[in-house]
Amino acid sequence: MNQFILPVLALGAGLVVVGCSGSPGTSATRDAGGDRNTATAGSGVGGGTGGAAGGAPAATQTCIPPASQDSPAPKLSLSGCVDPNHPTVLAASVIPYEVNSPLWSDGADKTRGMAVPVGAKIHVKDCAAEPTVCSQGPADTGKWVFPVGTVMVKNFLFDGKFVETRLFIHFDSATWVGYSYQWDEGQTDATLVPDDRVQVSFNTGKRLVDWHYPNRVDCMKCHAQSAGSTLGPETVQMNRLVGGTNQLDRFQAAGLFDAPVPKPYPAALVAPYTSQAGSPPVSATLEQRARSYMHANCAICHRPDGDFPNLDLRLDVSLKGTGLCGTVPMKSDLGIQGSLNLDPGKPDNSVMLLRMNTPADSGGGKTVRMPQIATYAIDQEAVKLIRDWITSIGGCPP
Ligand code: HEC
Ligand code: HEC
User: Which of 233, 253, 273 lies at the terminal end of a domain, its last residue?
Assistant: First the structure.
């Protein structure tokens, strides 16, 4: 039940077929259990695999921003982003996609999709050629910039049941707004969550899951302009085989980019988790997995201009450049005298690990946990990964 790979990957017709299935499990491409990636993960493909069926999306774009920020659809079925008769199914014009290294969200499975206005194009940053669009340096090469009118969609599932759908909407050149929808247990529809943190106990039919809906300010703490507003879509995340076709080739063939992404494509982020067969690729090193994890889960805030810019945890930044290795924590030693942000060979003396391994305060109080928002359950597999990685580091680079 854990592996879903779209059998048909052509844009347009294939998605309509999928869209008609009415089954949550096949409503979009999805990652495997715990949002771990499937066997296709991390397949850094140097060139085109061919076979991408081109053509513009066949369906008319129904998933568009509401008239104003204050009038989001009260029900997901009215948003235009899902099939109104089967709201667990993405609208035909919403393009499903997968990322190599997902955000940890308390073990939820996820599916994702994007609705780009007809005729509008996605721009892929090339920091060498256009340094002005990369105020944070070359590590932002490959970030995707979406046209105004884009709507991004992310579903959160447990045991195949939808608990939340998030819409992230590009109203104008300066404005993105996030909205959260709360699913009913009968899976008939999802209702707009008022702009407040909401906590529920969700019955999947198999178990009760604690779930926290973030508020709209929370959305913007992570989806900040400094992080590029959208967080998943970038070339290293999207360079991924889905059903035998590289996703980048699929987007290219569909005419979604304003200019072709140069080949060979940069190496893909690897899947951080091993719990899924074939994922990450056996060749992936601890360091690659750890850095892929941190790029997706930590670099949102830990980057120049971010929430805590003294650390820069983006993938292409050297270990020395991250500011982690051997540095004295500015904020707190967490009660351990002499602790460092990352103490080579000594995970238990490393504040980054101790912070990841701390449960959140569900009351919303100040927490030392990293990230501090939108996650409550410890990502045990990531804690082990970062522990092993720190253990493997012999010393900090000079
Ligand atoms: C802890 C940080 C964090 C918070 C808080 C957060 N997100 Fe995200 N979100 C991410 C990351 C990282 C990704 C990309 C990785 C992924 O898709 O797993 C993402 C992806 C998404 C996507 C897919 C498009 C994209 O940008 O990659 C949507 C839609 C989305 N989030 C909506 C929301 C909304 C709406 C809220 C508030 C209700 C919210 N998010 C709160 C971190 C966060
Ligand atoms: C939503 C934004 C956000 C995300 C995501 C985030 N952090 Fe942080 N981080 C912060 C902020 C803000 C602080 C400062 C905390 C304080 O004021 O006590 C911080 C502090 C830290 C510190 C202490 C630094 C010092 O010098 O004291 C470490 C280490 C750290 N984060 C690691 C991580 C790791 C590892 C991840 C990913 C697993 C992560 N963070 C994800 C915002 C974030």
Answer: 253
